[in-house]
Amino acid sequence: MSTDIRLVVLDMAGTTVADDGLVELAFRSAAAALGVEADSPEHRRMLEHVHATMGESKISVFRHLFGEEEKAQRANLAFEEAYHDLVGAGHCAAIPGAAEAIAELRGQGRKVVLTTGFSRATQDSILNALGWQSIADLTLCPAEAGRGRPYPDMVLTALLRTGTDSVRQIAVAGDTGYDMLTGTRSGAPVVAGVLTGAHGEERLRADGATHVLASITELPKLIAG
Questions:
Q1: Fewest CB atoms less than 10 Å from the CB: which of 29, 146, 154, 225?
Q2: Distance between CA atoms of 212 and 205, rounded to whole angstroms?
Q3: Domain spans of the chain, in order of start
Q4: Which option is the CATH number for 7-19+93-224: 3.30.70.20, 2.60.40.420, 3.40.50.1000, 3.70.10.10?
Q5: Where are the beta strands (DSSP E) in 22-152?
Q6: How do residues 7-62 score in pLDDT, each as one tens digit?
Q7: Which pTM was predicted?
């Protein structure tokens, strides 16, 4: 590619970090904390929404599901606690080759920023579990940027915080339609969907993917070509 990419903004769960159903397990705990009966019609409806909105800020998802702010906050807290416990129990692993891909991107002279739809506490627990505290130039969660996905705030905050000159120098990669929307809305010329997470190629392309890759390991070659 001839595009001058200087900043690469990467999603975590499903893109650089294996999800392995942790989001669904944590959601089940959150739903139970709010008194939603497991496998009830309401529970199934909520779970469908969670799957459809993978990548979105989790508090936004719970606001949609429960309506009242107090309930949404309780559900979000229960979700974060359950996810943290799962990570602490060892249910957290990198996508094969992800760490090497990040190192290659930085070795090419590009800034790398890791973003998430989780809270800072949960993001840090994942980074600590993987030993990734220094793997990227910057890590961001929705609360640090204004709004989460599908808004462009985290990508644009990454641009500002890294001193990148133009949105035309950004590549965004993720596994969900919301990641693709974030990338296109930010003005990034490279918006790469990966097939290691929540959504398939059809959803990724429908939401704006310029490229669809088998995994994040293909990204360094794509933007260096």
A1: 225
A2: 8
A3: 7-19+93-224, 22-88
A4: 3.40.50.1000
A5: 93-94, 111-115, 138-140
A6: 999 999 999 999 878 888 888 888 888 888 888 998 889 888 888 888 788 888 88
A7: 0.88
